[in-house]
């Protein structure tokens, strides 16, 4: 019985932990980008277009170069995004 409880708890913690993982903006598709707060379909497409034209983002700060992303949006995204795996 204890084994089942421990297994269930581990699975729960893994699921919860992965739900809060930062999204890699260098590999995210449009749907994943749209899941970020304040990012709609137009801005998600602009992020992908910027990435295709300029290569991978070197830092999350580079995101402000994308049309539709300003410093306020970047600050609201900072804890939810990454450029590394």
Automatic annotation (TrEMBL):
Keywords for this protein: Signal
Organism of origin: Desulfurivibrio alkaliphilus (strain DSM 19089 / UNIQEM U267 / AHT2)
Lineage, opening ranks: Bacteria, Pseudomonadati, Thermodesulfobacteriota, Desulfobulbia, Desulfobulbales
A biological process term (GO) from this entry: protein secretion by the type II secretion system
Signal sequence region: 1-21
Annotated Helix-hairpin-helix DNA-binding motif class domain residues: 31-50, 61-80
Name used for this protein in its record: Competence protein ComEA helix-hairpin-helix repeat protein
Molecular function GO labels: DNA binding
Gene Ontology CC, one term: type II protein secretion system complex
């Amino acid at each position: 019985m204890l084994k089942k409880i421990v297994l269930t708890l581990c699975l729960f913690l893994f699921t919860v932990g992965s739900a809060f993982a930062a999204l890699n903006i260098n590999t995210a598709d449009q749907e994943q980008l749209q899941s970020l707060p304040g990012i709609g379909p137009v801005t998600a497409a602009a992020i992908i277009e910027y990435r295709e034209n300029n290569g991978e983002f070197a830092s999350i700060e580079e995101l402000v170069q994308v049309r539709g992303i300003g410093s306020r949006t970047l600050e609201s995204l900072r804890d939810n995004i990454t450029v590394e795996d």
